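TL;DR need structure tokens for one chain.
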Amino acid sequence: MAQEHHEQDVIIIGSGPAGYTAAIYLGRAGHSPLVIAGALTPGGQLINTTEVENFPGFPDGILGPDLMDAMKRQAERFGATFLQDDVASVEDHGDYKTVTTNQGETFQARAVIIATGSQYRKLGIPGETEFSGRGVSYCATCDGFFFRGKPIVVVGGGDSAFEEAEFLSRFGSSVTLIHRRDSFRASKIMVDRAKANERINLLTDSVVEEIQGDDQGVQSLVVRNVLTQETSTLTANGVFVAIGHTPSTDFLDGLVQRDQSGYITVDGASTRTSTPGVFAAGDCVDSVYRQAISAAGMGCRAALDAQTYLAEQAD
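>> reply
TL;DR here they are.
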């Protein structure tokens, strides 16, 4: 049976840069937010990232887990509390919201911030998990620099894949974009730009079957032609998977409006959702930028929007 808890001012669902930043701001404002940070990997995708070199204030870089731990400790310093669990459901009761966790605990809050992020879609092939962070990446702007002068592969056929290939061509000795069909979802201008880039090769009608490597990281890929079924080995040290993201919003079940891909829609540049008192920030909203710093900035905005809402409700 669910255990009822006293009402909070604000509950933040999710962690990572957006959730932790919202917690810092709300804590400093005296709201003592409860952060339901996730059961398995509190801290979001940066927990699985090694060196973060593009977060302002760290000229020598910082490990992803260290950055998230520092943000969490900063939020705790200002009165935030944390629960390591996932949220099963959120119900809107007008002046308050009810949040129920997977473990059956129930909390009430006057406002809720959703910062559950998104998940990279994965290939699901041998070697992908083993070499994640050691050659397999899901973010070109995060990790491209580490493959300067090395052969790189991008897997995907949409605008994101072509954007990543274009960006990575600044670093890699070569970039091979692999796509399972002979046509692309990407816009014509992106495809034309890639074809004009002498460092980018397009390998169509092909899929990656396996990622191979050693203690030094990724060394090669097994590629299968879907028409002939022939396999070949392709040398590569960096594999960037760009087949899309899935926002972690299924648990909301109609609470707020979402677009056809599942991303939460917000009101203009604010973080206000379609439901009063519910705000959203980070990669569960942002399908374009998906950076730690932009998520943190949105977490700040969500905290300020929530503060305004709480003040108005108190009047």
